[in-house]
Design goal:
The protein is mainly alpha-helical. The protein has 30 helices and no strands.
Length: 538
C-alpha cells in the first residue's frame, strides 16, 4: 500500500481541487468528523481523481461506527474489487468480523492485508487499531503485539503507530499530544504531511491552558504546508475562535469558505464572526446568502437582527427579529432583547410589553428583563406602570449602577416637570436622591454621582442654592485632595462644583471663598469671560 494514498501528500505538492476533494473526506474522518467525512466522500466518490479503494474503506468505517454491518461489508468488498492491493479494506473486514465476534475470520483478513506487503508497518498499525476499536481490553495482547512489531520493523519511525498510541493515551493530554507530535515529525522526515496528527495534536494540547499557543502554532504550520486542505483551514479558524482571537478567526474563515469542501454551518459561523468583528454589511451579505439557499436556517435571522441593531437600522432589525421568532429556531434570552428593542424603536411599545412579558415567563430566574419591561411600558406611554415595575425591582436589591442612575434621573425629570408644585417637586426629588444614594453605595465617592446628587438637591430647592448642595460639592473637593481635576475623568463635574460653590458663597456674602472657588474654576476654563469678570470684581 502506498503511504501517500492513506493520509499524506508530498510536501509542497500542488493538488487539483478534485484530488483534494476525497482527501478532505479522509482527513475529516481521521479528525473524528464523521458527518462531514461521509458527505465529502459521498459527494466525491465518482470524481475521476477519486481513489475508490480508499473512499470505500473510509465509507465502510463510517458504516461500522453507525452499526451498519451489511453496508460496511459491501463497501469494503467494493474497495477490494476496485484495488485488491489496497490493504485497508481487508483490515476493515477484519475489524467488522471482530465486532461480530468472529476472531478467526478477522485473523484471516488481517493476514491477507499484511500479506500484500509484509514490510508495510503502516498496515500493522491499522491492524492494531482494528483490535483496539473492537475491544481495547479483550484484545490488549494483540494490540501490543502489532504495535511492537511495527515499531521494530520501522525502527521506531512509523507515524501511524504514534497516532494510535496518542489516541490510546487520550486521558492524558500531555502524553497524547507528545505522541502526536512524534507522528508529525516522523512524517516530516519522510517528506509527508500527517494531517491526522496535526489535528489531533491541536485538539488535544488545546485542552491544556499552557498548550493553546503551541496548538495554534502547529495548525498554522499545517496550513502553510497544506494550503488547499479544508480541514487545515477549518481547524485553525476554529481554534482562533475558541481562543477568542476573533479577528484572526474571521479572516481564516474567509479563506475557508472559499474551499469547495466547506459546509453551510461554516458559512453560518463566518457570518457570526463577521458580526463580532464589526463587519456588519459583510455579515448581512453572508447571512442572506445562507438564507437564499435555505430559508429555514433560523439562526441567520438572529445574525441579521444583530447586525441591523448595531447599524441602528430599526425597520430591518424588526423584520429580522419577527422572522427569527417565526422560524421555529430555539429562542435564546437575548433574542427577546433584539425583538423588544426593535419594537420600541419602531414605536410599538405595547407589542414590546408583550414580548418582554414572554421573556420573563420563559426566563423566570433572569431579572434583567424587568428593566426592559419597564422601558417597554414607558414607550407605550404608561409611565406610572413603568416606574412601579422599576421601583419594585430596585427596592428588592436588583439592578446595577446604570439602573439606579437611570431611575434617579427619571424622578429628577418628574421633579423638574412639577417645579411649581411644592409637594410633588419635593416628593419626586427625594426619590431621585434615594436612588442616587443607592448608586453611591455601589460606587462610593464617585464624583459624577455626587454631582448628580447635588443637582437633585438644587431641583428640590426649586433651583435655589442650598446648603445640602454645597456640602456635597465640598465633599467632592475634599476627596479630590491634591490631585489636579484635569488629570481625572471628572473635570467637568469639578468645574460645576467650583462654579456652584462660588455662587453659593456669594449668596452667603462669603466673597473670600467665592473668589477661591471661581479661581479654581478658571483653572479648568480660563477662557470663560463672564466668570473672569466676576472673579476680577472680587
Amino acid at each position: 500500500m502506498k503511504r501517500r494514498l492513506l493520509f499524506s501528500v508530498l510536501t509542497g505538492a500542488a493538488l487539483a481541487a478534485s484530488a483534494q476533494g476525497y482527501q478532505d473526506g479522509v482527513d475529516n474522518f481521521n479528525a473524528g468528523r464523521m458527518e462531514e467525512a461521509k458527505i465529502i466522500l459521498g459527494n466525491t466518490f465518482n470524481d475521476p481523481n477519486t481513489d475508490k479503494a480508499i473512499s470505500s474503506y473510509y465509507l465502510g468505517c463510517i458504516d461500522v461506527r453507525e452499526g451498519k454491518s451489511a453496508d460496511a461489508e459491501k463497501r469494503f468488498n467494493e474497495g477490494i474489487k476496485s484495488n485488491p492491493d489496497y490493504a485497508l479494506n481487508y483490515v476493515g473486514l477484519g475489524e467488522l468480523a471482530l465486532k461480530n465476534g468472529n476472531k478467526s475470520a478477522a485473523e484471516k483478513y488481517f493476514k491477507e492485508a499484511l500479506g500484500i506487503n509484509k514490510k508495510d508497518t503502516e498496515v500493522m498499525a491499522y491492524v492494531a487499531r482494528a483490535y483496539w476499536n473492537a475491544d481495547p481490553v479483550v484484545y490488549k495482547k494483540e494490540i501490543d503485539k502489532h504495535i511492537q512489531k511495527a515499531l521494530k520493523e520501522s525502527k521506531n519511525t512509523e507515524p501511524a503507530i504514534y497516532v494510535l498510541q496518542g489516541d490510546m493515551a487520550a486521558s492524558d493530554p500531555n502524553q497524547a499530544s507528545g505522541l502526536y507530535e512524534m507522528a508529525i515529525e516522523q512524517s516530516k522526515d519522510k517528506g509527508e504531511i500527517n494531517r491526522e496528527a496535526y489535528v489531533k495534536y491541536a485538539q488535544t494540547y488545546f485542552q491544556v491552558p499552557v498548550g493553546r499557543p503551541y496548538a495554534i502554532q502547529r495548525l498554522e504550520e499545517f496550513n502553510e504546508r497544506d494550503p488547499n486542505s479544508a480541514l487545515a483551514q477549518r481547524e485553525l479558524a476554529e481554534k482562533y475562535y475558541e481562543n477568542e482571537q476573533l479577528g484572526r478567526a474571521w479572516k481564516q474563515y474567509e479563506k475557508y469558505v472559499e474551499n469547495p469542501n466547506h459546509f453551510r454551518r461554516d458559512e453560518q459561523r463566518y457570518a457570526g464572526l463577521l458580526y463580532s468583528a464589526g463587519e456588519y454589511d459583510k455579515s448581512i451579505e453572508w447571512a442572506n446568502k445562507v438564507l437564499a439557499q435555505d430559508a429555514s436556517v433560523g439562526p441567520m435571522y438572529r445574525i441579521l437582527a444583530l447586525n441591523y441593531t448595531a447599524q441602528k437600522n430599526w425597520p430591518e432589525a424588526l423584520k429580522a427579529a419577527e422572522q427569527l421568532f417565526n422560524s421555529g429556531t430555539t429562542i435564546v434570552p437575548n433574542d427577546y432583547n433584539l425583538y423588544g428593542d426593535a419594537l420600541i424603536r419602531n414605536d410599538r411599545g405595547t407589542d414590546a410589553v408583550a414580548i418582554y412579558e414572554k421573556a420573563i415567563a420563559a426566563n423566570p430566574d433572569d431579572s434583567k428583563f424587568v428593566p426592559k419591561l419597564a422601558s417597554a411600558y414607558a414607550a407605550a406611554g404608561n409611565n406610572e406602570k413603568s416606574i412601579e415595575i422599576l421601583e419594585k425591582y430596585l427596592n428588592d436589591g436588583n439592578g446595577g449602577l446604570n439602573d439606579l442612575y437611570s431611575m434617579s434621573n427619571r424622578y429628577a425629570s418628574m421633579a423638574k416637570a412639577n417645579l411649581e408644585d411644592d409637594a410633588k417637586r419635593v416628593e419626586y426629588a427625594d426619590k431621585a436622591i434615594k436612588y442616587i444614594d443607592m448608586a453611591l453605595e455601589k460606587s462610593p465617592g464617585n464624583p459624577q454621582l455626587l454631582g448628580v446628587k447635588a443637582r437633585h438637591y438644587l431641583t428640590r430647592a426649586k433651583n435655589e442654592l442650598c446648603p445640602e448642595m454645597a456640602a456635597i460639592y465640598e465633599t467632592m473637593i475634599t476627596d479630590l485632595g491634591d490631585k489636579n481635576p484635569k488629570e481625572t475623568s471628572y473635570a467637568s463635574e469639578y468645574a460645576t462644583a467650583f462654579r456652584n460653590l462660588a455662587a453659593y458663597c456669594l449668596s452667603q456674602s462669603d466673597k473670600a471663598n467665592a473668589k477661591v472657588y471661581f479661581g479654581k474654576y478658571l483653572e479648568l476654563d480660563p477662557d470663560n469671560a463672564k466668570i473672569r469678570e466676576i472673579y476680577d470684581s472680587l
